[in-house]
Amino acid sequence: MPALSMMSTKKYFKVLEAAACMTARLPGVEDQYEDEILQAAKDNFRYGIGLKELLMEAARKNGYLNSRSSVIEVEAQQYAFGINARFSTISIGETLANVANKFVMRGWDSVDKTPLRIAKIRPVTDFKQISTVSLFGYIEFEQVGPAGTIPHGTLGNTAYSNKADTYAKMLAITRTDIINDDIGALTTVPQKLGRGSALKLNALFWTKFLDNSAFFTSGRNNVSTDTGQLSLIGLEQANAIFEAQKDPNDDPLGVRPEILLVPTELRSTAGTLMNSEKIKGSTDGPDGNPWKDRFRVESSPYMSDSNYTGNSTSAWYLLADPEVLPVVEIAALGGRVEPIIEQADAAFSYLGIQMRGYSDIGVEMQEYRGGVRADGSTAD
């Protein structure tokens, strides 16, 4: 194995990246790098690498002459980021961004992910408004005559729109972090950015989904108000409403609900209804449970959050598979909902490292036939 000083600049920075991830205790770090890189990181940074050492190593590789100094000044930081570098134009910024993106999911996963499980993810290529034509139209097959002419169908004129926008935040690894040699800042900052991205996704999603009084209506035959409590009777009534829906041609919809969406206050009840072999009914004896394993239970604390219009501790929903008939859709640039973390470009005239995180997403309601809302107001 070549000595660290003899490695190519690209491989050298990869060793620094691996050393930072190992010091910050990245789970599964052994699967992230080649054995040669991992071994070089272990051999050269046996006791881990600090943030100050990381920057100084990069500055030296890029030709910083005052290499014996242990103090990170503006000049050393500029060399680390390839500004006025003597030997290399490779920046520590790429290394920092790579490390950050390996830790961003910790913050992302700390926030409720229900939207990703009940919505359709729509990949988009730009920020223009897009339209999705409804599944329904005059598409029933017709008999082909002797001439072999196939009749044309129509997709209908119902379309649903959506649009991705950019949401972002910038945070800094401060001068104090550098002086304190705090490698943990490389994990804390991206975790905060990851969490911030997930919070924005939820805010967009539940603002649209819960303010649904004009979406779930009796006129659309997708609301249950008579026996709406989450129970055997409530499920039976809501399911009957869902399966009685018709398409625009007055044909049976033919799509069954797959998801039982409830606020956290009803999670236990939903779990009991879906998991129990028997449920006590109207008589004293135990009855079989016709709903066991029928729906996939999803639950979110946002559904009863008073900060959102339409919140409720009792309302629940039956939803179709979002890949078949989505009630709500998340548009995402390139299909990526998760945030991207970058070391921000800047003229570094001060000590500190800026990182930016951004997501390109949008949320819109789509096909009203794909769900039924039960208000939960009536007891059995």
Give an overview of the whole structure:
- This protein is α+β, with helices and mostly antiparallel strands.
- The chain has 2 domains: 4-101, no CATH class; 102-380, Major capsid protein gp5 fold (2-Layer Sandwich).
- Helix content is 31%, strand content 19%.
- It starts with 8 loop residues before the first helix and ends in a 6-residue tail after the last strand.
Helix/strand layout:
Blueprint: H1 9-23, H2 35-44, H3 51-61, H4 74-80, H5 92-108, H6 114-118, E1 120-124, E2 130-133, E3 159-162, E4 165-173, H7 175-179, H8 185-210, E5 223-224, H9 232-243, E6 257-263, H10 267-275, E7 278-280, E8 286-288, E9 296-300, E10 316-320, E11 328-333, E12 340-343, E13 353-365, E14 371-374
Parallel strand pairs: 1-11, 5-14, 6-9
Antiparallel strand pairs: 2-3, 4-13, 6-10, 7-8, 10-14, 11-13, 12-13
Helix pairs in contact: 1-2, 1-3, 1-5, 3-4, 5-8
